[in-house]
Each structure stands twice: as C-alpha cells, then as structure tokens.
Amino acid sequence: MTFEKNILKAAQIIKDGGIVAFPTETVYGLGAGVFNTKAIEKIFRIKERPFFDPLIVHISEIKQLELLVKKVDENILKLAEKFWPGPLTIVTEKNENVPDLVTANLPTVAVRMPNHRAALQLIQQAGTPIAAPSANKFGRLSPTNAKHVLKQLKNIDFIIDDGNTEVGIESTVISLNREGFTLLRPGVISKQDLSAVIRYTDNKFFIQERGLQSPGLLKSHYSPKVPLYILGEEKVNLSNKKIGFLTFGANKEKNNQLVTENLSPTKNLKEAATKLYEALHKLEESGVELIIAEPVPETGIGIAIMDRLRKAAAKKENLAEIVD
Predict the structure, then answer these.
(1) H/E element holding 22?
(2) For every one of its 324 residues, what pLDDT tens digit does the chain have, with 9 covering 90 and above?
(3) Count of other CB atoms within 10 angstroms of residue 197
(4) Over 178-209, what HEC string results?
(5) Cβ contacts of residue 245 below 8 Å, gap of 6+?
(6) Strands 88-93, 108-112: parallel, antiparallel or unpaired by DSSP?
(7) Gap between the Cα atoms of 123 and 120, Å rounded
(8) Contact status, residue 303 vs residue 189, Cβ threshold 8 Å
(9) Entry pTM
(10) CA–CA separation, 102 vs 324, rounded Å?
C-alpha cells in the first residue's frame, strides 16, 4: 500500500472512532479524534495510562487552535510563527468544547503542530485535531519507529510506518501565563530559544496550583524493563551481572561483560538525542540485567537527554537488590 493510501485509510479509521499509531518528528504517537471521547478512552486502556495524565493535541493548521484554546493571543501566535510546525507543545486555557478526558479535568489544554508529513496529512485528511500521547505502555520507553510500537502495544487499528523519527525525544512543553511562559518539560527547543520570543518566568507556584499539565512530568517515566543507573550518580554492584552500557563519546575498550550502545562517538548532542530511545530499546532487547548510562553535558539538547535518563533511572520497583 502506498504512503498516500495509508494516510487515507488511517484518516478513515480516525473518523470512524478508531485508534492509529503514527510518526511525528519526535516519537510515534497513538492518536484519536480529540472530540471522540470513546476513542480517547481506548487510548488510555491500550496504554494502561492513568486518567490524571493529560494528552497533547496535534493540529495541522493555526486556525484549528480556535477549536481548542480559549483565546488565540499574541504570545501563541509569536511562538507558532517561530517554532511551528515543530517540537514545541504549548499549554494554555482550553476551549470548553475540549473533553475533560483529554485534559485530565484541568482548565488547560496542551497543543502542538508536528513537523512530519505523515502526522500533518493524517490530521488534514481526518478533518479533526488528533489527541495523541506516545505509542507505548505508560511509563515505558518511547517509540521512534513502528517496530517499537508493535513491541509494546496490541489492539491498535492501524500503524503508519514511515521509518525512524528525526528528533528522537519528546517535544519541549511550556505553559503560558500572564507574565510569559514557564518551562514544563525540556526538549530540542531550549528555554533560551523561547525566551528570545516571549518572556520566561520561573512560576513554580503556577505549576503547583494547576497540577500535572502535560505528559512527561512524573518523576518516573521513559523507563526500560530493566533498571537503569546513571554513571557517577548512583552506586551499583556490578558483580555477576550482564550489563548494558549506554556511552557518549569515543568508543570504549571492548569488555565481554558489557553490551554497548554509543549515542555519539563524536559527542554530537543532536545525534545523541536522535539515538537515545533506539539505543535503550536495543539494550533492553539484548537480555542485559541492568543498564548503566554515561551522562552527557547538560547544555542545549543535553538538558533534555539527561531529563529523560533521570526519569528512566527513577523507576526501579520489583528489582533484585543490586545497590550497595
């Protein structure tokens, strides 16, 4: 089936109340029409996702904002002109027509315009904004290709397979307020990039009052099935363990005890972000008992990479005692 026919088939499934996995430039999403609450419920069930965690709504053109947000103000338009389509999610007050299920009963909605042909054409052909979290089990590794989706999820009506994603990590998420914006989740688009367009405010009180405004804000997230530790940040007993080593920089000496995946031998942070989930999926599938991740510099995209690694490292329930 051609790409165009896949899009048309997927769009019809969305119109009929079905669920479609599709690529964006960041990760693969699991989508349904935003105003179809029965379809949205299916997403939560398939992902085993708690209902307190809101979804991001994807649009293909600016005029669709009017369906979703209370007011399309100057700041939204400035950000959209600079960063959309692209990996930026904006949280702002919602239009009352947006189902509470999508927004976890919050007065805000998270919206972005993805920079990917499949996502944009799917939204256009379906004739509706599409609510779509990442196409994985809740809290587990995000998918950057169709194989990763199939590995974790069943009972999906259709998958648009358009190869590997380009960015490789989830979008930057910001929340708008009267003073400007607050950063909720780091991504490829940095706080510095955004503050060149509108004012940055470190409004922690606003975040606490509003609650969990977007995906990716829980302490534990993006986790492989085996425990992950960050080199230099945690003590680990490595004796008699099959170890996965996630490295960054020049290739290390070969060690038969280690299964190694290198994010970027040349220390390119953009390359590291693109490869992050692919490398973790490979290590998870290799049969290792734990993963040690070498930290990357916390500058630019490195801030987002370390955010994902620390959240992946936070989940260590039901594990053998391996920490000294």
Answers:
(1) strand 20-23
(2) 899 999 999 999 999 999 999 999 999 999 999 999 999 999 999 999 999 999 999 999 999 999 999 999 999 999 999 999 999 999 999 999 999 999 999 999 999 999 999 999 999 999 999 999 999 999 999 999 999 999 999 889 999 999 999 999 999 999 999 889 999 999 999 999 999 999 999 765 544 445 555 555 555 568 999 999 999 887 777 777 899 999 999 877 666 678 999 999 999 999 999 999 999 999 999 999 999 999 999 999 999 999 999 999 986 543 333 332
(3) 15
(4) CCEEEEEECCCCCHHHHHCCCCECCCHHHHHH
(5) 252, 258, 259, 260, 261, 291, 292, 294
(6) antiparallel
(7) 5
(8) no
(9) 0.91
(10) 43
Could you tell me which residues are beta bridge partners of residue 183? 174
Residue 262's CB: how many other CB atoms inside 10 A?
Answer: 19
Token pair in block for residue 122: 């799917």
The C-alpha atoms of residue 221 and residue 290 are separated, in whole angstroms, by 16
- Whether the CB-CB separation of 155 and 191 falls below 8 Å is answered with no
Q: What are phi and psi of 20, to 5 degrees?
A: -130, 130
Other C-beta atoms closer than 10 Å to the C-beta of 266 total 10
Token reading at 165: 């994603």
Residue 212's region, left for phi above 0, alpha for psi from -120 to 50, else beta, is beta
